[in-house]
Amino acid sequence: MSSFHPHLLDRRLRVARAVVWAIMGLIVVVFFRTQILEHGKYRLQSELNRLRPITLPAPRGLIMDRNGKVLAENVPGYTVSLLPGDQDSLRAVLRRLAPLVKLDEAEIGRVLTRYRRAPYLPVMVLPNAKFELVSALEERRVIFPGLLIQPEPKRHYPDSSLVAHLVGYVGEVTEAERGQRRFTGVRLGGLVGKDGLERQYDDSLRGADGVRFVEVSALGRVVREAGAASTLAPVSGQPLRTTIDLDLQRYVAQIFPAGQRGAVLALNPNTGEILALYSAPGFDPNSFVGGIEAATWRRLNESESHPLFDRSIQARYPPGSTWKLAVAAIALKRGLVTFHSHMPIPCRGGLQYGNRFFRCWSAQGHGDLALADAIAQSCDVFFYQLGLKIGLSSLLEEANGIGFHTRTGVDLPGEITPEFPTGTEYYDRAYGPRRWTSAVTLNLAIGQGENAQTLVNMVRFYQMLASDGHARPPFLVHPGPNPNVTLGLSPDQLAGLRQAMISVVERGTARGAGRFGGTITIAGKTGTAQNPHGPDHGWFIGFAPADKPEIVVGAIVEFAREGPYVAPLVTRVIGHYLGVDTTLASHLRIVLPTDSAPHPVPILPGVVPEDTVPPDTGRMDTTRTDTTNATPPPRDR
Description:
Number of strands: 18
Helix content: 25-40%
Structural class: alpha+beta
CATH architecture of the domain at 320-519 and 589-600: 3-Layer(aba) Sandwich
Strand content: 15-25%
CATH class of the domain at 320-519 and 589-600: Alpha Beta
Low-confidence stretches: 596-637
Largest sheet: 5 strands, mixed
Number of helices: 21
Distance between the termini: 85 Å
Mean pLDDT: 83
CATH superfamily of the domain at 320-519 and 589-600: DD-peptidase/beta-lactamase superfamily
């Protein structure tokens, strides 16, 4: 008997029709969604496959000195990129390119990583191609599908290492930096300021990139331009005019002792404008353009002279006798002395305090001196007693009020904070309660001990002496907030300190440093920063004309062996700026006095022993991020 039944067949037909209608309905829905609802999305994907955006980099703004001379400019350059069809085709083209442009496997990997981050954008291969290579690539264009060569402005620093720490350099933005607010909107591969003024004012220097579109084939070959109507022109960065006097900057670099390390900073005491800022040794910022060679990066970081280190704002040194003017100013402000005041104990080569003998730099002593003469002769014994007369707490309070524990706010990245105790609690933390005595005051009084200052901070203090006693923030482009900091001295007291500094140059520890073929009078102060790692460092800070200063110049020279070149270096810079003949000063050699640290001696009869005095900590503090073993930034080829 057959199992076929007419009703069963009819049921199967109905089910089949329902399935067919459901499938057709689904197809219609999907078609409607694709063609109508998501038309824009798929049209965009189609356009992205056909049209590729080509970035037109904006030229960075020029950086100029106060007279319009160029410190940083843009020169013509070329970039080599690829418009890939897919990752496999990109890899194949890169392997064909490798022998010609010297790409290794690591660099090929970096190019592929860039592609994966933005597959619809041209992928950079060489950011700084030479003209000869560009010509060779153009001749072989047919075997490199998607090859894109376009002119692009390149950063150039005409004065190279002479302005390196001042201007800084540029480099490709990193992934970490793109996550920062200040780099919002910077494209992959975009150049940003990495140091110096390039970094400080990157927002205004950077400008806004433009864009043009090209039509490409499935293989990534450029078919034609999309048309001028779709092109957005780049907007150049804003020019930056600084306070620097390039002529003075070049002169400083020219006369700085060859092979020596140190820094020079010159500013206008009445405005805070920085006229010259030089750190030695320097480096060539042009080597960073287009990505620095790994070997060059290692050499810069492994060098014991740390050429990337800006010694004007990133190094701390014991100020030595340059700090004695601060002690004198504090004592005058508090009414403890006048310029004719003498100390109870005359200088006979040192001062016994407790169980230690604190030497003066002059072994034979200076005898009985008044304050003005003690400044001129830089007598340690006088200032030991003056520090004790002020008292440790008062000395710390007044010095912090002047700004010896704060940064100046100069408009450069990387300025460090000076080292100076904020109060006596510092010693409790460092040595333990009751494990130190007021003997630490003696060290502080001559600029040693727990006192390490930056050059820019010491020059700011002398700027206050050279002007009306008020602090003005040093600056290169825009001044920072004006701090409410003053020495609190009367005009007569300021004039007296200036006269004492004139005596330093005319008959004191820098005698002869102001020998010019003219009538300009220089006021200044010498200093020797103790260095436990080798020869001491030499200081000199001065200003002129002494009666109405127009320029303040400070210099620190490391391992200066009592600094025979330091004072003449400063006075020559001053003379050059003021248009005075510096021939005599150029031949002068001055041996600065060595500021003495306390040395233990047997306790003398009748002397009450003091508690243990903390050892002298005078040193150069090259506070910096240790990059000796750092991974170099990738060289973007």
